[in-house]
Structure formats: C-alpha cells, structure tokens
Amino acid sequence: MSTHVDFPVCLRLQGKRVLLVGAGNIADERGQQLVDAGARLRVVAPRVSPALRRLADEGRLELLERAYTLGDVHGQQLVFVATDDRQVSEAVAEEARALGVWVNAADIPELCDFTLPSVGRRGPIVVAVSTSGQSPSLARQLRRRFLAQVGPGHVQIARLSGWLRKRLPCGAERMRLLKQLVEGEAGELLARGQRKAAWARVRAALESFGETT
Ligand SMILES: C[C@@]1(CC(=O)O)C2=NC(=C\c3[nH]c(c(CCC(=O)O)c3CC(=O)O)Cc3[nH]c(c(CC(=O)O)c3CCC(=O)O)/C=C3\N/C(=C\2)[C@@H](CCC(=O)O)[C@]3(C)CC(=O)O)/[C@H]1CCC(=O)O
Ligand SMILES: NC(=O)c1ccc[n+]([C@@H]2O[C@H](COP(=O)([O-])OP(=O)(O)OC[C@H]3O[C@@H](n4cnc5c(N)ncnc54)[C@H](O)[C@@H]3O)[C@@H](O)[C@H]2O)c1
After folding, report:
1. Fewer Cβ atoms within 10 Å of its own Cβ: the N or the C terminal residue of the chain?
2. Res. 44: pLDDT tops 70
3. Mean pLDDT, residues 95-118 taken together
C-alpha cells in the first residue's frame, strides 16, 4: 500500500498564466474556479462546453478551439488537463515536465505534479479535503461534513479579522486581539448569531487597543 502523503497549498493565482487543455464536463468546473481565482486562463479544446464558451464570450478567459499542439505549454505557469484522450494528457504532461511547469491531469495520478482536493467555500473560508489520492469519494463526503460545520458566524469572524488586520499595526497586541476575537466571547457570540453583543465586545477591545503596549 502507498504510504506517500500529498502536500497541501493554497495558490494565489491572480494574474498568473494558466493553461487548461480540454473543455468538457470536468474542465467546466476547473475553468470556473480558475477564473474566479483571478487566473489569466487559456483554454485549448476542439469541443467546448456552453459554460466555458460563455466565460470566453464575457472575456474572462481566452479560448482556442482546436486540438492541443506541442508548444501550447510554453509561457504558461500552471497546467490542467481534462481530456477524454489519455495520449493527449500524456503529451501535455510531458511537455509541461520538460519545461518545469506543474501539471494536474484529471484522474491520472501518475501524470500529476499536484492533485486537487475536494473543495467547499463559505466566503473567504475554504474547506479542502485530500486523501492523498486514495479515495476521492471519501474526500467529497468528508468535505461536505466539515463544510456543514462552518456557519455564517465563522464567515463574519474571518471577514472582521481580515478587516482589522488591514487597519491595525501588526505586533503582539494585534495578535492578542485577533486571537481573542476567535477564541474569546466575541467569537462565541458571533458563531451563535448574536452580532450586536459581539460587536460591543469587539468595540471594547478596540478601545483598549494599544493601551498595554
Ligand atoms: C476530490 C476531487 C477534486 C476534483 O476533481 O475537483 C478529485 N476527484 C473527485 C471525484 C471523484 N473522482 C473519482 C470518483 C469516483 C469514485 C472514486 O474513485 O472514489 C470521484 C467521486 C465522484 O465523482 O463522486 C475517480 C478517480 N479520481 C482519481 C482516479 C484515479 C485513481 O485513483 O487512480 C479515479 C478513478 C478513475 C477510474 O476508475 O477510471 C484521481 C484523483 N482524483 C482527485 C480529485 C485526486 C485525488 C484527491 C484525493 O486525494 O482525495 C486525483 C489523484 C487526481 C486529480 O484528479 O487531481 C473530486 C471530488 C469533487 C467533489 O468534491 O465534488
Ligand atoms: N475528477 C473527476 O471527478 C472525474 C469524473 C469523471 C471523469 N473524469 C475524467 O476526466 C477526463 C475528462 O472527462 P470529461 O467528462 O470532462 O470528458 P468530456 O468528453 O466531457 O470532455 C473531453 C474534452 O477533451 C477535449 N479534447 C479531446 N481531445 C483533445 C485534444 N487533442 N486537445 C485538446 N482537447 C481535447 C474535448 O474537446 C473535450 O472538450 C476523463 O479522463 C475522465 O476519466 C474525472
């Protein structure tokens, strides 16, 4: 039995050049997620799903309606392949590897430099479950279960924390305050949906911000 474990990262794809080869069922969701993440996406495929065509019409991705050809990976920073032709996936992965560009081939682990976890989102919170390639079905089931535990209060805490970290100078005092926001009373109140009471606690904490530094 394989003992390897995959290493999780969260990529910041804003403005990055990403190639997606294939534009069918699987590519559909990938394309949407990549565009949402701000990637400069180029899609290459002879058959194109209506959703990907719509994104192209809206100018959110570049569409090349033709088969993959050697050279397509050149200049790209990340590559996804989701075709129904194993030989094409192999050719794309080979070109990517020759150029040192990371590649994911849907459902073909041996061609993957990275795999995709099962992902769910609530605002800025991302729940991602990987089974290191052992059971994608289990990854999906666990992801659904974990995501159900993330409530609107958690999203508010994350957003509030993000807002505060932009405005308060970093340092021990800010760290204490932001930790308190999650672990203390304000966090509990927000998680229970008691926004007004939570805000009162946050305001009080903000008023005393800096007093102990
Ligand atoms: C999580 C998810 C993300 C995504 O694709 O977006 C994803 N597969 C999903 C679903 C899914 N895929 C498959 C089934 C059928 C049941 C089953 O096999 O369990 C289901 C379940 C379903 O469809 O319900 C078949 C399958 N998948 C792979 C193989 C090849 C092999 O195992 O050798 C085969 C057999 C093909 C065959 O038999 O021919 C391989 C991979 N699939 C991965 C990711 C990577 C490892 C993830 C991990 O570490 O857990 C990895 C290694 C490479 C990659 O694709 O990146 C997505 C969940 C979407 C969601 O959350 O809704
Ligand atoms: N991860 C998952 O959850 C999952 C589930 C089902 C299937 N799959 C696998 O994903 C792959 C794609 O499945 P699908 O349902 O999206 O297939 P699909 O038939 O809907 O789409 C295939 C796409 O590949 C394109 N293509 C074919 N030859 C090409 C070439 N030479 N150059 C560029 N593009 C080319 C087609 O134009 C089409 O857009 C299959 O290998 C399938 O086994 C993955």
Report:
1. N
2. yes
3. 97
Work out the widest C-alpha separation in the chain, in whole angstroms: 65
| 182, amino acid identity | V
Q: What is the DSSP letter of 8?
A: P
What is the residue whose two structure tokens read 């994608």?
Answer: 136
Q: DSSP secondary-structure letter at 187? A: H
Structure-block tokens of residue 55: 């994104």
Nearest alpha-carbon partner for 81 in 37, 134, 119, 27: 27
Task: Give the residue from 151, 150, 130, 138 showing the smallest Cα distance to 194.
Answer: 151
- Counting ligands in written order, the one closest to the CA of 111 is 1
Mean pLDDT for 89-110 is: 97
Cβ within 8 Å of residue 165, ≥6 positions away: 174, 178
Quote the pLDDT of residue 90.
98
Query: Does residue 85's CB lie within 6 angstroms of at least one atom of ligand 2?
Result: yes
Q: For residue 111, what is the DSSP state? A: G
Q: How far, in Å, CA of 128 to CA of 6, rounded?
A: 13
C-alpha of residue 14 to centroid of ligand 1, in Å: 26
pLDDT of 73-91, one tens digit each? 999 999 999 999 999 999 9
- Do 43 and 20 touch, CB atoms closer than 8 A? yes
